[in-house]
Design brief:
The complex is a heterodimer. Chain A is of the alpha/beta class. Chain A has helices at 2-12, 46-56, 68-76, 90-98, 118-121, 179-189, 202-216, 224-233, 244-253, 283-293, 296-306, 333-345, 349-354; strands at residues 21-23, 34-39, 59-65, 85-89, 102-103, 130-131, 134-135, 138-144, 147-150, 173-176, 217-221, 238-240, 258-261, 267-277, 309-310, 324-326. In chain A, strands 1, 2, 3, 4, 5, 8, 14, 15 and 16 form a nine-stranded mixed sheet that branches. In chain A, strands 11-10-12-9-13 form a five-stranded mixed sheet. A two-stranded antiparallel sheet of chain A has the order 6-7. The longest helix of chain A is centred in the middle third of the chain and has 15 residues, at 202-216. Chain B is built from 15 helices and 20 strands. Classes of the chains: A alpha/beta, B alpha+beta. Chains A and B meet through helix 1, strand 11 and helix 12 of A and loops of B.
Chain lengths: 355, 571
């Protein structure tokens, strides 16, 4: 399940895992213009690439990466001049902008932007997309971390993240074993303006919150299949779906009567965008690629084959009004993970805060 | 190059021998190899069962220790009314148990209350055993080994999934493959009060197991889903902990039935993938975990490089090659011997035939042999004898025929043909070496009268007697011949002096004139003799005969019974 793995890496923003990069197609002819694309598995399906090549009479040189580290290495090498267009999440995009590796997107060249859902057309509402008054990337696909609940045990869809702490569900809650997201979750319940920026005074409160979460959960999971097993074996009522809609499909596929809810605090969500490099050779062609990928065939394949949401259609299991909190770099990833490891190990607050 | 039967036979025999030896060697090698591989598989499976048995024994021992600890009164007291004395006593007990069980990373008493707070905990660390301070005790209620064990009844054991222990502060066990085994501490009135947990050092345990196995055996362990837990290549173990699952059924597809639960054991060879350069035989056993556990099943595997297995057969291969080469050489020698033994008598017969053909009769033949060649030699010998005998007979007949052709049948004297041959020969002799020869021509007088009056028999008798008298009165070197009718001639070569010739003529006249008795009758006869000499009277046979005949005729004319020289001799 490539999208899951990919999201797993993304969510952890981790340094774990091997950086794999596969040049999918080698380019030989020099006369045909070449578009150099860097993307995640499943983003540029073969038929999508082929139709683009036919329409524009060009050749696409597609390179696949599956970790943020590999992406950064590829894009930052030769000051981004090895590629024309690439897919990147909003958090990593900031780093590229800071290093001057991306060009503003010429919106006028991309008519399909009009097909996007309003919330994605309004790039200003998405933090980090606009720089110096110019849109630096086009939202492409996303997934949010909602709450999955057992309809038998919880009649009404939970409204708030606080449901995870609800003692009525003690021992029947499953949470994700990841430091960054867990602290963001705690920060959301604390009502902080940005769940990604914990202030000095916020840490003890967040740690207490997470210890309380620990005391309420049946277990923490890491992999989607593990969450499914635990959901069944612990007769769980509520699950923090770090893997979003895919996890929902997995549980439903196993015959569980589950619902999906986006809490009112907003669901943490990752958003992958297409961006154009500073070293782009042909800006018009790169824009055409983005336009092509926002077209219906590409969007449909993204949904049907990869189980990912497109920015042009509202998914079935969410409502247009649902709030999403797009992931951003956190204030101190290392500290969050260090403390989280302590919390998961069962330490009490003093011990956690001292780590 | 012309190859003889012997060479060809030797080559064919030698090749046949080498082929037979080679094929036998090859099949022996193959069969031995298959046997060894099959026996290695059996051995692996048996060893695997032994290892599994030991694991089960270890688990049972842990269970007994858990029973002892969970049933210990101090455990329940420590959970319900903790007193320093009880806690210390338990800590001491834990220490003692860990001292005697080096594979225990940790023993803990965990309360059901207070979110699964640890009550007593002894850890193993780098230097030894360590009782964890109160402040460092942790809440473990969210771990399955606590929450699931709390659901069990007295004496029941829980076994955790085998994972890398990511619990911070676990000392020696942190970051290591761990297996938690736990048992509830039960108050008969108030139910489960807590759990006792033993954390096992999986790596240590398996190192110990591996140490008892032959060095070339490799031990593998996978959980029910196939996730590799123990593997010679450490990078494959606990892949799921790094976000990349490594499944035994993907690395070794023949294990799939075990993972699916369709089989309890599989034995196979791996020649593909990473095993291409170093193929292995492998035996895997699937073992259901009979106690409460989330893994359900464990897969235990042993592998052994095929190279090790067939090592013995490789030594055998060297011997086989030696034997094959030796046998082939022996076959070559035997082939040469057999071929030459067979070809020698044939050659002898052939040689005999060749010699016989050129007339050298009778060479040695292998007639003494009691086989087909002996028969052939004997038949050949008989044939040789027969041919020789017939040739001799033929020669004597030829001789007879030749005699008949050159002699007068009635008198036995040379006939005209032989006489002419001799005369020609004598003339040729005379021409080469000089000297003289003479012809004495003799015609009987009144022979016709005897023949007419007395009959042919009397005439024949007369001719015979005359012939014998001629023979008796001539030299051995002379040739008396009957030319036909009553005509006789004597060739004298070398010719005697004319006087002696004349004496001879007189002697012959006298001898012929002696009356012959035939059927009591006296037959009177005489003869006329003409003598010619060469070279005086001629150089050719015709000249000489004509001269002698003429001289004889003159005698007849003169009144018979006398002799005359063709050329009268002086005086």
């Amino acid at each position: 399940m490539p999208p899951t793995n990919r999201r797993h890496h993304l969510c952890q923003l981790s340094a774990l895992g091997l950086a794999v990069s596969l040049p999918v197609r080698a380019v030989s002819s020099s006369s045909i213009p070449v578009l150099r694309v860097l993307a995640w598995p499943g983003y540029a399906e073969p038929e999508v690439v082929k139709s683009f090549e036919q329409i524009h009479g060009v050749q696409v040189e597609l390179t696949i990466i599956d970790t943020d580290e590999a992406l950064w290495r590829r894009i930052s090498a030769n000051h981004s001049s090895d590629f024309d267009v690439f897919a990147i999440n909003t958090a990593e995009l900031q780093r590229c902008i800071r290093h001057g590796l991306v060009s503003p997107v010429p919106g006028a060249n991309i008519p399909n932007l009009k097909k996007q859902l309003p919330r994605f057309q309004d790039v200003r509402s998405i933090r980090g997309l606009v720089h110096g008054g110019k849109a630096m990337a086009v939202p492409f696909t996303y997934a949010e971390m909602g709450l999955i609940y057992d309809r038998q045990q919880i009649g009404q869809a939970p409204e708030s993240i606080n449901a995870l702490w609800d003692v009525r569900y003690k021992g029947r809650v499953l949470a994700y074993n990841g430091g960054s997201h867990s602290f963001s979750l705690a920060a959301q319940t604390m009502g902080l303006s940005s769940p990604f920026k914990l202030g000095t005074k916020d840490w003890p409160v967040a740690v207490d919150k997470l210890i309380a979460l620990r005391r309420n959960v049946a277990a923490f999971y890491a992999q989607p299949d593990e969450s499914l097993e635990l959901f069944k074996s612990r007769q769980a009522a509520l699950l923090f779906a770090n893997y979003g809609s895919q996890q929902l499909q997995l549980l439903k596929g196993a015959g569980l009567d589950v619902g999906y809810a986006i809490p009112k605090e907003g669901a943490l969500a990752w958003l992958d965008c297409w961006a154009i490099t500073r070293g782009v050779r042909d800006l018009a062609l790169a824009s055409a690629w983005i336009n092509h990928l926002l077209g219906k065939p590409a969007s449909d394949l993204l949904r049907t084959r990869q189980g990912l949401a497109s920015t042009t259609e509202e998914p079935e299991h969410t409502r247009p009004t649902d709030r999403r909190v797009w992931l951003e770099p956190v204030e101190d990833d290392d500290r969050r993970n260090r403390m989280w490891a302590r919390i998961v190990s069962g330490d009490r607050a003093a011990k956690v805060l001292a780590s | 190059m012309r190859l003889g039967i012997a060479t060809r036979l030797a080559v064919v025999l030698a090749l046949l021998g080498a082929l037979a030896a080679g094929l036998t060697g090859f099949y022996v090698y193959e069969a031995s190899r298959d046997l060894l591989v099959a026996s290695a598989k059996n051995k692996l499976l048996t060893s695997n069962q032994v290892v599994l048995r030991r694991i089960t024994l270890t688990r049972e021992m842990v269970t007994r220790n858990l029973q002892m600890l969970s049933a210990h009164p101090a455990s329940l007291r420590a959970l319900q009314h903790p007193q320093t004395q009880d806690l210390d006593q338990l800590a001491t007990l834990f220490r003692l148990m860990m001292d005697s069980n080096p594979a225990y990373f940790q023993i803990r008493l965990i309360a059901a209350h207070d979110h699964g707070i640890e009550v007593v905990r002894v850890d193993r660390d780098a230097v030894g055993l360590l009782r964890v301070d109160d402040a460092d005790l942790q809440e473990k209620g969210h771990y399955a080994y606590v929450s699931e064990t709390l659901k069990l009844a007295t004496g029941q054991t829980y076994m955790s999934r085998i994972v890398i222990n990511r619990e911070r502060g676990a000392h020696a066990g942190e970051g290591k493959p761990a297996l938690m085994m736990a048992m509830p501490v039960v108050d008969t009135d108030r139910g489960v009060q807590g759990v006792v947990v033993i954390n096992l050092d999986l790596q240590g345990m398996f190192s110990l197991l591996a140490a008892d196995l032959p060095s070339q055996f490799q031990l593998m362990l996978a959980n029910g889903a196939g996730d590799i837990l123990v593997h010679p290549d450490a990078n494959l173990a606990f892949g799921f902990d790094r976000g990349q699952r490594q499944l035994v059924q993907e690395h070794m597809p023949p294990t799939l039935p075990l993972v699916r639960g369709d089989a309890d054991s599989v034995v196979f060879e791996m020649h593909e993938g990473v095993y291409a350069s170093n193929p292995v035989v492998a035996a895997f056993i699937g073992k259901n975990i009979e106690i409460a556990s989330e893994d359900g099943r464990l897969l235990l595997g042993l592998t052994q490089p095929i190279a090790d297995v067939v090592q013995e057969v490789d030594r055998l291969r060297v011997s086989i090659v030696n034997i094959v080469v030796g046998l082939s050489l022996a076959c070559l020698v035997v082939a040469v011997v057999v071929a030459s033994a067979l070809s020698r008598p044939i050659n002898a017969i052939g040689r005999a035939a060749r010699f016989f053909a050129v007339g050298q009769v009778k060479t040695a033949l292998p007639t003494h042999r009691q086989d087909e060649i002996g028969d052939l030699a004997r038949s050949f010998s008989r044939m040789q004898d027969q041919i020789s005998q017939q040739l001799e007979e033929l020669e004597s007949s030829r001789q007879e025929l030749s005699d008949l052709a050159r002699h007068d049948g009635l008198t036995g004297l040379a006939n005209r043909r032989l006489f002419e041959e001799r005369l020609q020969s004598a003339l040729a002799q005379r021409r080469r070496h000089g000297g003289e020869l003479a012809l004495v021509f003799l015609d009987l007088d009144k022979f016709k009268d005897i023949n007419d009056q007395q009959g042919h028999e009397a005439g024949d008798e007369v001719l015979k007697v005359v012939a014998s008298r001629l023979r008796a009165n001539t030299r051995e070197v002379d040739t008396p011949a009957r030319l036909g009718g009553d005509e006789f001639v004597v060739l004298l070569c070398p010719a005697p002096e004319p006087t002696q010739l004349a004496a001879l003529a007189r002697k012959l006249l006298e001898a012929v004139s002696v009356p012959i008795v035939h059927e009591q009758e006296l037959l009177e006869l005489g003869c006329s003799i003409g003598i010619s000499r060469s070279p005086v009277d001629g150089l050719t046979a015709e000249e000489l005969l004509a001269a002698a005949d003429e001289a004889m005729y003159e005698v007849k004319q003169a009144g018979r019974n006398g002799f005359r020289f063709a050329t009268p001799i002086p005086g």
